[in-house]
Amino acid sequence: MTKLLLSLHVLASIVAIGPITVAASMFPRFVRPAPREGGARTAAGAALLHRICRGYTVVAAAVPVLGVATGARMGVLGDAWLIASIVLTAVAAALLLLSILPAQERLLAVTDADASGDDATTGAALSPRAATDSSARLAMTTGVFNLLWATVVVLMIVRPGSTTGA
Fold it and tell me: Predicted confidence band at 121 (pLDDT cuts at 50, 70, 90)?
C-alpha cells in the first residue's frame, strides 16, 4: 500500500503541480501590455494560462493529502524533512491562492478592459506602467512559488536526517 500511495503522490505532483508552475511562469509574459500585432491572441493565451492554473489548483489538493497518507504509512510524519516539506507546501499553496491567482485575475480584467476599450470594467483601471509593474511583481511571486516547490522536491529526494533516505 505504501508503494501505491507514494506512486500516486509522485504522479499527482507531476501531473498537477507541473502545469501550474509552467503556466504561472508563462502568464506574466502573455499579459504584459505591448503595442504590437496579435494582442488578442496574447490576451487569449493569458486567459488560457490562468484557466490552467485555476483548474489544476483543484487537482493539486491531492498532492499533500497523498503525501501525508504516504508519510503516515512510512512512519515519518514526525521527521524534520517532512515537516519542513509540509510547511513549504502550505506556504506555496497560500502564495498561489492568495497572491498568484488573484493577481492573474486583476491583470486579465485590465487586459479585457483594454481589448474592449472600456476602462470602467476594472473599477480602477491600471495605467500601462502600473500593469507592467504588476506583471513584474507577479513574475517574481511566481518565481518564489516555483522555488518553494523545487525545495520541496529536493527535501523529498534527499530526506536529510532520515534513516529511510538515500
Answer: very low
